[in-house]
Specification:
- 38% of the residues lie in helices and 17% in strands.
- The protein has 9 helices and 7 strands, in the order H-E-E-H-H-E-H-H-E-H-E-H-E-H-E-H.
- Strands 1-7-6-2-5-3-4 form a 7-stranded mixed beta sheet, with helices on both faces.
- Helix 1 packs across helix 2.
- The chain is globular.
- The model has no long low-confidence stretch (mean pLDDT 86).
């Protein structure tokens, strides 16, 4: 990371913490430098920034958020932020031909990176996450040794409501829960429901 990216990272970290507090709460899962997939509810484009800011420094350096390519590369500035500062993994929201939309995530995990993903696949608008798509199950099947950590992001949709460009100061938090794992022989639907329930349960913590 060059000096401009480091400076921007420090600026964004200070800004996010000033606007939201970026409080991290760890329940049943201490912050640890091991390969993980953090999976969380998704209500705002600011979600990836808030989780990134909530992680300790030593975890931020090894953890890559996923970012929708169409939105986060729409301008040179967004592309630079997500590439140089967040080291994000770009994903396509729409399948193109025979391309596997999970391939960039598979490549990142194979390289030893940790990831921040949003299994709903798109932003929700209610109090509860939408049903999880199959990506988390497929990654858990392929990388059984990667620790799966549920997370609940609280209030961030009020900081950056859909369609708005100016953030509003609102106290936010990210609650990290006890890891879940894909059990031998567990079917996809059952696992995804259980993973979603693990995220939703953190809302009440």
């Amino acid at each position: 990371m060059n000096w401009r990216a480091r400076a921007m990272g420090m600026f964004l970290l200070g800004l996010v913490r000033a606007l939201t507090g970026a409080q991290a709460r760890w329940y049943g899962c201490p912050p640890k430098a091991e390969q993980r997939i953090y999976f969380a509810n998704h209500q705002s484009h600011a979600d990836l920034v808030l989780i990134w800011a909530a992680l300790p420094t030593e975890l931020r350096s090894i953890t890559r958020p996923i970012a929708a390519r169409d939105y986060w590369t729409a301008s040179n500035f967004k592309r630079w932020i997500t590439t140089a500062v967040f080291n994000a993994v770009y994903v396509e929201r729409e399948r193109k031909g025979d391309e596997d939309p999970l391939q960039p995530l598979i490549d990142a995990l194979a390289a030893g990176d940790s990831l921040i993903i949003f299994p709903e696949g798109t932003r929700g608008h209610g109090d509860e996450p939408q049903p999880f798509k199959s990506g988390l199950y497929n990654l858990a099947s392929r990388f059984p040794d990667v620790v799966l950590v549920p997370a609940w992001i609280n209030n961030v949709q009020r900081v950056m409501p859909k369609g708005e460009v100016i953030p509003v100061p609102v106290l936010c938090s990210v609650t990290f829960g006890e890891p879940v794992r894909l059990e031998p022989g567990e079917e996809r639907a059952g696992f995804l429901t259980r993973a979603r329930d693990a995220v939703l349960a953190l809302r009440e913590v």
